[in-house]
């Protein structure tokens, strides 16, 4: 079965504007992380630059730095991005390590700054 040409095209972005996609649910166990990972990997396979921000701290055991360290000034944003050797255009930023929380003093503006910096 042949794919039609329009189904096999790479998506075209207009200009240098970044796109922000949020996958959220108030209910646990609905495969938010799986969905985000699959969308992120699919976009990276199209050679688009992708940064996934994971707020599930239980999945962030293997990282050295997180968004909390960036916001505290303990490291640069680039140091907190976790990269996969197989997909260099896909990066992960964990919000915080297990058993640590983002201080309430950061507020929502800090997260907005972080996303805009990416």
TrEMBL record:
A cellular-component GO term for this protein: cytosol
Residue ranges occupied by any CobQ/CobB/MinD/ParA nucleotide binding domain in the UniProt entry: 21-61
Keywords, in A-Z order: ATP-binding, Nucleotide-binding
Single GO MF descriptor: ATP binding
A GO biological process held by the record: negative regulation of cell division
Protein name: CobQ/CobB/MinD/ParA nucleotide binding domain-containing protein
């Amino acid at each position: 079965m042949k794919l039609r040409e329009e189904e096999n095209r790479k998506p075209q972005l207009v200009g240098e504007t970044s796109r922000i996609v949020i996958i959220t649910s108030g209910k646990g166990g609905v495969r938010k992380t799986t969905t985000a990972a699959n969308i992120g990997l699919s976009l990276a396979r199209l050679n688009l630059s992708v940064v996934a921000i994971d707020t599930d701290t239980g999945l962030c055991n293997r990282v050295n730095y997180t968004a909390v360290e960036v916001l505290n000034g303990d490291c640069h944003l680039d140091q907190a991005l976790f990269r996969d050797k197989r997909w260099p255009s896909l990066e992960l930023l964990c919000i915080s390590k297990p058993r640590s929380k983002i201080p309430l003093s950061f507020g929502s503006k800090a997260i907005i700054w972080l996303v805009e910096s990416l």
